[in-house]
Write a structure and sequence with these properties.
With 97 residues, the chain is α+β, with helices and mostly antiparallel strands. The protein has one domain: Alpha-Beta Plaits (2-Layer Sandwich), CATH 3.30.70.100. It is 28% helix and 31% strand. The chain contains two helices and four strands; from the N terminus they run E-H-E-E-H-E. A four-stranded antiparallel beta sheet has the order 2-3-1-4. A hairpin with a 6-residue loop joins strand 2 and strand 3. It is globular and about 40 Å long.
């Protein structure tokens, strides 16, 4: 069952220029991670500090392995650019239920 993960981010005011660039660099490793089907980044049209990374994964297990890697040896330092902790929400396709 495929999984769509939404990583909701808010960049700190002093990182509105370098934060999104850093995110795009960081996502190169995400896209290369086993089980990643793709990542799209969208920005709120009224609030440029609000960004969502839309990630597609082959399975919940692949996504879990990625999150564990990012929490350990694959730590990205993205938190240094954010105004607060990101929010992660994961979904499955209705057809997979």
């Amino acid at each position: 069952m495929t999984v769509t993960s939404l990583l909701d981010l808010r960049f700190a005011a002093d990182h509105l220029e370098d934060g999104p660039r850093a995110l795009l660099d960081i996502l190169a490793d995400t896209r290369a991670f086993d089980g990643c089907l793709g990542v799209q980044v969208v920005t709120d049209v009224t609030d440029p500090a609000h960004v969502v990374a839309v990630e597609r994964w082959e399975s919940l297990e692949h996504d879990d392995a990625y999150r564990a890697w990012r929490a350990g040896p694959g730590a990205s330092g993205l938190g240094d650019y954010l105004a607060g902790p990101p929010a992660l929400t994961r979904f499955t396709d209705v057809a997979s239920l």
